[in-house]
Each structure stands twice: as C-alpha cells, then as structure tokens.
Amino acid sequence: MSSVLNAVAQEIVSLHDFFTQWSNGTADRDHLESRFISRLHPDFTIVSPDGAAHTRAHLKTGFEQTFGSNPGFRIEIRDVAVRFQSGDQVLATYSEWQVGAQRFAQSRNARFSTVLLKLADPIQWLHLQETWLPEEVRAADRFDF
C-alpha cells in the first residue's frame, strides 16, 4: 500500500471510529473539536446521501446534540482507494457500512463516499459526497462486523 493511500485510509477509519465512539457515548466529550471539527477545513461541505448539503458549523451543532444517542451503532470502512492526487490534494473513495443506525430508516445501511482531502498535519477534509448503495448491493454483502 502506498504511503498516501495508507495515510488516507488511516484518516478515514480514524474519523469514523470517533463517530462510533461519539454515538455510543464512549468518546471523551472534550474531544469533539480535536478529533473531528478541527479536521474539517473551514469551508468544508458534505452532501449527504439524501442530497442535502451541510457546512462544518452545521455538523458541529448536530454532533453536539447526539453524544451517546445511539449505543449500538457501529461503522466499518471498506475499499478505500486514491482516485487522483494533485500536489497536496487527494480525491479518494470508500464505502461505509453501518449497523444499528437509529437516525435512518434502514438501521443497516451502506453508502459510497467520495472525499477531497488536503494532505497536511493533520489531514484536512475539504469536501465529502455520500451516495446510498443500492439495496441489491447491501443485500449481497455482510453486516457481520
């Protein structure tokens, strides 16, 4: 695995591990800024699977309200790939598989994500686009993690 791919995969998995801990209520509440918000570029946007766009400030407000709200929630990241790199910016894709998601109609769901990252210390998230994986893909795969 290349060093860029390794750094990108580690960043994506680490951030989603924090999401799991936050949702489960096992993260330190004081770490929201250092482990999540500070990793988002000030102009960060996310387009969620339903097509809604959200800013960094919107995410912070939402996360502050959800600490410990989903004790059985788990995430597994799969298939991280670097699709393009130019200078210190990397376009990567990955799939995110969720179990126990109370905020969605499907408690077991999966999405395909495309992320634009800036390679810095720490890595900065610039933009994220999520798309629901179709039912036939989810049905053919395992949620046994």
Automatic annotation (TrEMBL):
InterPro entries referenced in this protein's UniProt entry, alphabetically: NTF2-like_dom_sf (IPR032710), SnoaL-like (IPR037401), UCP029394 (IPR016918)
Pfam families: SnoaL_2 (PF12680)
Domain of life from the UniProt record: Bacteria
Sequence ranges assigned to domain SnoaL-like in this UniProt record: 34-101
Protein name: Nuclear transport factor 2 family protein
